[in-house]
Amino acid sequence: MNRTEATEAIKMNKTGLWRKMGMGLCMFLMLGAVSCDDDDEDEVEVFDNNTFFQDMTANSMFDDWDADSDGVFNDDEFTVSFFETWDTDDNGVLSDSELTAAENDFAITGADWDTWDYDANGTIEMSEFQTGAQSTNLFDTWYTTWDADADGMLEDREYTDGVFDLWDTDADGMLTDVEYTTFYDTYYGV
Ligand SMILES: [Ca+2]
Ligand SMILES: [Ca+2]
Ligand SMILES: [Ca+2]
Ligand SMILES: [Ca+2]
Predict the structure, then answer these.
(1) 97-101: long-range contacts at Cβ-Cβ below 8 A with a sequence spacing of 24 or more?
(2) What's the whole-model pTM score?
(3) Counting ligands in written order, which one lies closest to the CA of residue 95?
(4) 140-176 pLDDT, tens per residue?
(5) Which SUPFAM superfamilies match (predicted)?
């Protein structure tokens, strides 16, 4: 890279930075319902809970978790769904790093994963996860809170809205493309 190219590269980087800041401002204004035309090709796509529901139910994930095929999630199915979701490398066990990531990304507090590793082999197997979740009532609050129609069962839509609300930390009803990419693709992407 010669000197002129290097200068151009720096300019490009600066332009990119300003564009990012501009888009940040754009998002900020959108929250205030001010219209915002983004005329460059880097459109900020925003995902709401309908998009989230459609994407999450577009594959067989929910059918797989609904072990008794009754169309709703009971406690056990709910617990298993998080084991499978958090097992991001799909090797059938939860590692320390997977649990730490899940703890951060799903805002889990007060879980002592070491205790759940009952055979102390360094990973949490499905049966350990089920025992641990049951003994600590880890998922009870979500299960109850997400059950919007309070019928004691979780439907698909209640499930996806629950996860959506977890991630929509500013509660504006939207996830940015960055949030979507970071969270959705990591845990539910195919
Ligand atoms: Ca079921
Ligand atoms: Ca794993
Ligand atoms: Ca273990
Ligand atoms: Ca329900």
Answers:
(1) 99/124, 101/186
(2) 0.75
(3) 2
(4) 999 999 999 999 999 999 999 999 999 998 999 999 8
(5) EF-hand (SSF47473)
